[in-house]
Amino acid sequence: MADQTLDAKGLSCPLPILRTKKALKDVPAGGTLEVLATDPGSVADMAAFCRTTGNELVESGQDKDVFRFVIRNRG
Amino acid sequence: MTETAAKADSANAKTMTILVSKGSLDWAYPPFILGTTAAAMGVKVNMFFTFYGLGLLLKDLDLQVSPLGNPAMKMPMMGMHIGLPNLAAALPGCEAAASVMMKNLIKRKGVASIPELREAAVEADITLIGCQMTMDLFEYTRDDMIPGIEIGGAATFMEKALKSDISLFI
What we know:
The complex is a heterodimer.
Chain A: E1 4-8, H1 15-24, E2 32-37, H2 42-53, E3 56-63, E4 66-72
Chain B: H1 3-12, E1 15-20, H2 25-40, E2 44-49, E3 75-77, E4 80-82, H3 86-89, H4 94-108, H5 114-123, E5 127-131, H6 132-137, E6 150-152, H7 154-162, E7 166-169
Parallel strand pairs in B: 1-2, 1-7, 2-5, 5-6
Antiparallel strand pairs in B: 3-4
Helix pairs in contact in B: 2-5
C-alpha cells in the first residue's frame, strides 16, 4: 500500500507527469506515491520521469484501462 | 524533497531555453508542454517570447487556430479525419469555428488548456521573457502582460542559450 495516491485518470500528457511531480513534494523521502492514469503515453513517460529525476519506479502495471504506478520518493 | 537534496538538485540542474516565435493555439502547445515537463524533471527552463509568440504572455488569451494553409489539420469527425480545402477555410467565420472545435476537442480529451499550462509554467518558476522589440513593434506595454515576466532582447536570449544544455526554436 502506497503512502499517498494521485488520481490522474482522464488527463493527457503532460498533466499526469506535472501532477506527479507536485504530489511527490508531499511524500516524505523514502515514502511511496501511487499514481492512477488512463493516458497510455504515461507508461513510457512515468518511467522516463523516474529515471531522470532519480525517483524509483517500484511498480508499473495495468488493470483494464487504468495504468497504475508506484513511485518511491528518493528526494 | 529535503533541503540538501533540493540544493544539490538546483546545482546540478540542466538548463533548457526555448525561443517561442508563434502564438496560434496549435503552436502554443509544444513550448508549454516541453517547458513544464522539463521543469517537473528538474530542468531549469527559460522561455523567450518573440514576435507572434509574445501574445502568449498577454493577460487575456484568446488563441485561435486556422485551417487556412494548414493541410495537416484534420479533425476527427464522424469516424473520419476531415480537413478543409483553402477555398472553404478562407470563408468568414471558418477560423473562429475551427478554433471552437479544437478547444472543445482539447477539453473532451483531457488535454490541458494553454492558460492551465502557462499557470503551471509560472508555478514551476520557469523564467518567462518577453521580447522588448516585439512589444514596441506591436504596441504592447508591460501592463498588457502577465505579472512576473522579464523583458529582454536578442542578447538576453543568447546569454541564456549559450549556457543551456538544450536550446529550441519553436
